[in-house]
Structures are given as structure tokens and as C-alpha cells.
Known about the structure:
It is a single chain. The protein has helices spanning 4-15, 23-33, 99-106, 155-158, 168-173, 233-247; strands at 57-66, 73-82, 87-95, 122-129, 143-146, 184-186, 189-191, 204-208, 212-214. By secondary structure, it is of the alpha+beta class. The protein has one domain: Quinone Oxidoreductase, Chain A, domain 1, CATH 3.90.180.10. It is globular and about 40 Å long.
Amino acid sequence: MISNNIASEYLQLCSRTSYYKKPRSLCWRGISEVAITITTFSKRIRPATAMEEVKTKNVETLAYVVHGAGEPFKLEQVTLDELAADELLVDIEYSGICATDLGFQAGKIKLCPYPAIFGHEGAGKILAIGEKVQNKDWKVGDRVLLSMNYCQKCKFCRSDHPADCVEGTRLHLFGLRDNGTTAAKLNGADVRFHFFGQSSFAKRSFVHETCVVKVPDGVKDEDIASLAAMGCGYQTGIFEPSHDLDRK
């Protein structure tokens, strides 16, 4: 576990590098060296116990908020309005940091207005489940990895190719739910959230059901940090060398 200050300093350091200029190779390097950071939130928001009722409305949580292009990641307390029926409340224990997050923070990708909460390589624990979540095997307390959300309706989603979802750009990068709303508020004002359906730079997040993959039985808790980047980094990282081999 690292301190909040170190986590914040790491995010700022990443934002000042040329990381975004070579997203694939450096994304791979980044997650292999540091698949981590938000564990420290637990120092300020303790996890729920069996005797504690978990709130799914007006949920207060810490998050790294970006207020403008090139602005630093600022650790602030935000409020999440109400868990949607197709979402899960997840306590984010670990998050990777991807070149895409840094591109949005730097203003190099101009699809999501500020203020916004990024992050899309989360891992954590289910605290609550929306009433219309389709997978009935998930239960409160399950450890999960988080990846990208998808529409479930287009021809690619229906043929088991959600990475090609025709709604992907809108669902992943605009910081809004499918219905155009955002759950996050800061001092009463909207904050873009739901980045790739998860916004893993928040300690607690409303995560769309299509993002969620249960950690297999037998995986040790201490190994989950290194799996957080499965949501993006490992997938795109493995593509680059395999693509090069195909070309050769």
C-alpha cells in the first residue's frame, strides 16, 4: 500500500511525460511496472462491514478529478447520485493508468468535457448490485476486474465482438451513461463519469454490468493488483507484438 501523496505524485508524473505519444508500447510498459494506485483511498474511506448498510444513493467517495485540459489530477470528494438498475457499486481497490487516461487529462483527446473522472483498468469488490443486472451468479463481496462497456444491441455485440461495438466511442469516451446522464456531482455541479463504463479513478464507482468480469476462484488477493490492467493494457499490449509477428 502506498500513500495518497505518492499516488497523486505518480499521476502527475505520468501526465508530464511523453507517455501519450506512443500509447501501445508505453501502455504495456506502464501496466507491467505499476498496475496500481488507488489502494490508498481505503485509508480515508473504510470498506463496508457485514453490519453496515451500503448506500446506493448519494454515495460520497474520493476521486481524482481533472478540471481542464492539462490540469492536474485533483483528489476530491464527489457524490454519486443513485445506482442505476443495470449497474453495480464497486469498491475500487486497484487501478492501472493507461495512455488514454493521460491523453484526456492533457487535452490531446477532446471528446469528454471537464470536469471529469477517468480510469478504465479497475479491480475491486462488489458492494451492491442493481435490480436489473442480468448475471445472477454475481454476489456482493465478489472480487471483479473491469473492462469496457458495450451496447449489447449492435451486430458486433450480438456476434460476441463487443470490442467493435458501434456505440463504443460514445459509451467509452463521453463520460456519460447510455441515457446521457452522469452520476457524479462536485459541489452540486455535474462531473463527467462512467469513463469506459467504470471511471476507476474513483474509490467507489457505479459500474455498468457489461464491464464486469468475476475474478476466478483460487486467485490470491495479493495477485489482483497485477490483474487490474487486464481491462485494457494487457489486451492492447499483447496486440502489438502479435500484430508485428503477423506482418512478418
